[in-house]
Amino acid sequence: MLKAFLKNIEGIVRDAAERRRISFNERLESFNDNFAKEIDWTPAVKGGVGFRTRTMVASGHHSLKFRPSLTPLALCFGALAIGLWIIFAFSNPGVPLKAYFLDFFNVVHAWYFRLFHQIRIERILTALFGLIFVMIGSVGLYKLFRPVKFESDQRTFSRGYSFFRPTVVPFNDIKAIQILSEYCKGDKNRSYRSYEVNLVLHNKSRVTVVDHSDLSEIRRNGDALSKMLSAPLWDISKT
Does residue 159 lie within any of the structural domains? Predict the structure, then answer.
């Protein structure tokens, strides 16, 4: 009886997989372009986040920019603030919080002296623990404020800081806009879907524009980019 039950479950799973495969193939056929069948439809960026990371805004008449959203900004600034508080408050006990605002430089100088000249291992460890939060917040802010923009007057897409070899893609290299989804598992068995907007290039490579879980914003981005670039939108987020 158990074997029959397991066989039925296996059949259900197999049928569901077959239906997804058929649905996927039907979506590709609906694009009426054989090029869509030749590119990769697996996520370009593994993993995702369960909230919107960037919001698309128009900048003047000739460009679209993707600015950081409030949720990741709050998380990064929160981690940074917690780290600095741990470093200064716990490794420099007895100093009231208002002193950091009223006499910041003297307080920091005293903290430095106590930490490195009156060496106590617990102060060093506490400072290092706080430094972890500072690094997490700083790296997060660095990535969030990394410019991501489309400029129609220059006919280029760019991602990254100008001083650190940014990714630059001419509009003429872009074949289509791709939207796809990825099933992700978060903490405490929480699952969600993360969605990507990718630029499909004529050489069949892909460049990711944004990747987050807000499907309505993802589709708004895809529609706007499709119009701006005069490129087809290939959206399989429903499959």
Answer: no
Helix (H) or strand (E) holding 138: helix 121-144
Reported as a pLDDT band with limits 50, 70 and 90, residue 118 is: low
Same domain, 174 and 231: yes
How does pLDDT run across 65-85, given as a tens digit for each residue?
999 999 999 999 999 999 988
Show the domain range for 189: 33-62+170-239
pLDDT tens digits, 1-12: 555 444 445 544
